[in-house]
Design a protein that fits this description.
This protein has a single domain, classed as Glucose-6-phosphate isomerase like protein, domain 1 (Rossmann fold). 46% of the residues lie in helices and 6% in strands. It is built from five helices and two strands. The two termini are 37 Å apart.
Length: 161
């Protein structure tokens, strides 16, 4: 959900007058094979922002499987946050080695206050960035155009040709 919000915020606020960065989101580790491949070895027209919070206080320990059918018993006894940290460090190293500019945002403890601070920071950053680009971050002419066309095609009153 956070990634979709961020993508909408920057896309709608900056994407005007042929300007703005194309926002795309990836949730690691789930997207490491799909988008991770593009980030790692694709065209260098991107930069990456990694958002992190501290490990949770409550630890989830990974169990094993007697038959080791998935080959993951080497993780037995490790905590989920330990595995997440190693996935983060491995991904960060690979992307930096691959020439991807990376911004890391370490947000501290995952609580209401820190999440609010992150949202505020990104909203403010988006507005400032749009003004630097010379676009109004508070209008949505492209969105209004497709909505007007769609409403007209659907026969909504007030949208006739």
């Amino acid at each position: 959900m956070f990634g979709g919000w961020w993508q909408q915020l920057f896309g709608e606020s900056e994407g005007k007058d042929g300007k703005g960065l194309f926002p795309a989101t990836a949730e690691f580790t789930a997207d490491l094979h799909s988008l991770g491949q593009m980030i790692q070895s694709g065209v260098r027209n991107i930069f990456e922002t990694m958002v992190r919070f501290d490990a949770p206080e409550k630890k989830l320990v990974i169990g094993g499987d007697a038959k080791n059918l998935d080959g993951l018993n080497y993780l037995e006894g490790k905590t989920l946050d330990f595995v997440d940290e190693k996935a983060y460090l491995g991904t960060l190293a690979a992307h930096v080695d691959g020439g991807v500019p990376v911004i890391t945002m370490d947000c501290g403890v995952l609580d209401d206050r820190k999440v609010g601070e992150l949202f505020y920071f990104l909203e403010l950053s988006c507005g400032v960035s749009a003004y630097i680009l010379g676009v109004n971050p508070f209008n949505q002419p492209g969105v209004e155009m497709y909505k007007r066309n769609m409403f007209q095609l659907l026969g909504k009153p007030g949208y006739e040709k």
